[in-house]
TrEMBL record:
<feature type="domain" description="Purine catabolism PurC-like">
    <location>
        <begin position="7"/>
        <end position="126"/>
    </location>
</feature>
<dbReference type="InterPro" id="IPR051448">
    <property type="entry name" value="CdaR-like_regulators"/>
</dbReference>
<dbReference type="InterPro" id="IPR042070">
    <property type="entry name" value="PucR_C-HTH_sf"/>
</dbReference>
<comment type="similarity">
    <text>Belongs to the CdaR family.</text>
</comment>
<dbReference type="Pfam" id="PF13556">
    <property type="entry name" value="HTH_30"/>
</dbReference>
<dbReference type="InterPro" id="IPR012914">
    <property type="entry name" value="PucR_dom"/>
</dbReference>
<dbReference type="InterPro" id="IPR025736">
    <property type="entry name" value="PucR_C-HTH_dom"/>
</dbReference>
<dbReference type="Pfam" id="PF07905">
    <property type="entry name" value="PucR"/>
</dbReference>
<protein>
    <submittedName>
        <fullName>PucR family transcriptional regulator</fullName>
    </submittedName>
</protein>
<feature type="domain" description="PucR C-terminal helix-turn-helix">
    <location>
        <begin position="338"/>
        <end position="395"/>
    </location>
</feature>
<dbReference type="Pfam" id="PF17853">
    <property type="entry name" value="GGDEF_2"/>
</dbReference>
<dbReference type="InterPro" id="IPR041522">
    <property type="entry name" value="CdaR_GGDEF"/>
</dbReference>
<feature type="domain" description="CdaR GGDEF-like">
    <location>
        <begin position="152"/>
        <end position="284"/>
    </location>
</feature>
Length: 401
């Protein structure tokens, strides 16, 4: 939860400040007030500042004000406040109002009679209060998601006092942005950091729109949010909404990719810790199994639910080594060939021609590799029980990749 431009305009004592244009940006978060004293602001702001423009130290004609608006949009500040009065800026030019409206940049008029010290004090105090409130809201939600509480009734009462309505049934969503290593390997570190920050901000803004007024948890490319989901119909709608958003987003993000895991539906507050565990398992499947297109719901996991529930990792490793160990060792020493071939064969239901097309190989090459796989592992791919073992072993391999 953060202070917005709309919140600033509603603060006691600031009634004489009025929005003149850019209503679309009223929900922009305000990180801090900044008084512009130079001709430009681009090199003096980091983003999300509420910028106050006076004519005291620099003349502000129409051209300069339009320049400030352009820089404000480029640097993604929260909004512009123009101080008006008889001494410096007499009025806000109509061209500036039109440009601010078109850009969705909040443009606020403040009379010089309203002292800046009162304005900055009111905003500073509100920022502290909102930060404390946000921390408390995050703490309550994190406790519910981890099961770290003694009395659910007390925690829900605290949530209600903080303006969080948690009554009802929910679906937990976990998201993870991956691929930053490739960006750092190819580009300037500072440039990549700025790019990642921009992508994180954009994703966070969209997720907050869906979070039903509840805090969005996480940072640095990892997010957790709650979506209302009283039944399977609502859960399906949530999945479709996320899938529709993810497909074009991931095309634009490349080489970055956002993976998403959703819990089952209809979890009351008492079961949110279980829901978070389900979302984590679904996220792991979304990351490891490319056929899921970066998104997975817990209900879609099938036998993966059983594998994820095995707490003794050594049991899974032993099963994998027992069934496919010779292939893993072969590929380790000679390069990946047999495991990708087995996986392609499995995905194509034993169709050698389709597996060859998937691997971009000649059918005879795939046939030879399949024979080699059977010889090394002592498995018969035509045997139903052996195929079952292979399928499970491949899932374990993917989960551990």
């Amino acid at each position: 939860m953060s202070l917005t431009v709309a919140d600033v305009l509603a603060l006691p004592g600031l009634e004489s400040m009025r929005l003149r244009a850019g209503e679309a940006g009223l929900d922009n978060p305000v990180r801090w007030p900044y008084v512009a004293e130079n001709s430009g602001i681009a090199e003096w702001v980091l983003g999300s500042e509420l910028v106050f423009v006076t004519g005291i130290n620099h003349p502000r004609d129409e051209a300069n004000l339009l320049q400030l608006l352009q820089e404000a949009c480029q640097r993604k500040v929260a909004g512009l406040v123009i101080l008006t009065g008889p001494a410096y800026i007499q009025a806000i030019p109509q061209r500036l109002l039109d440009a601010a409206h078109a850009a969705g940049m909040p443009l606020i008029e403040q009379p010089y009679s309203l002292k800046m010290v009162l304005v900055t004090q009111a905003i500073g105090s509100a920022l502290i209060q909102f930060e404390q409130l946000g921390r408390s809201r995050h703490d309550v939600l994190e406790r519910l998601l981890t099961g770290d509480f003694q009395s659910l009734e007390v925690l829900l009462h605290r949530a209600a006092q903080l303006g969080m309505s948690l009554n009802g049934h929910w679906q937990v969503v976990q998201l993870q942005l991956e691929g930053s290593e490739s960006l750092f390997a190819q580009n300037d570190t500072q440039q990549v950091e700025a790019h990642l920050a921009q992508q994180h901000d954009g994703i966070s803004r969209r997720l907050r729109q869906w979070s039903a007024g509840l805090p969005l948890l996480g940072r640095a490319g990892n997010w957790t949010l709650l979506l209302p989901a009283p039944d399977a119909v609502a859960a399906l709608a949530n999945r479709q909404q996320l899938a529709t958003w993810l497909k074009p987003l991931n095309l634009r993000l490349a080489p970055l990719k956002l993976f998403t895991g959703l819990s089952a539906a209809a979890h009351p507050p008492a079961r949110l810790a279980q829901a978070q565990d389900e979302a984590r398992q679904a996220l792991a499947a979304a990351r490891r199994f490319s056929e899921r297109a970066g998104l997975c719901v817990y209900d879609e996991l099938g036998v993966l639910k059983l594998l994820s529930g095995v707490r003794d990792r050594a049991l899974l490793d032993h099963f994998l080594n027992e069934r496919l160990g010779p292939l893993l060792r072969h590929d380790l020493h000679h390069g990946p060939s047999l495991m990708p071939t087995l996986e392609a064969w499995f995905h194509e239901n034993g169709n050698l021609m389709a597996a060859a097309q998937r691997l971009a190989l000649h059918r005879n090459t795939v046939t030879h590799r399949v024979q080699r796989i059977e010889a090394l592992c002592g498995l018969t791919l035509d045997n139903a029980y052996d195929r079952l073992d292979i399928g499970i072993a491949l899932m374990i391999w993917r989960l551990s990749a």
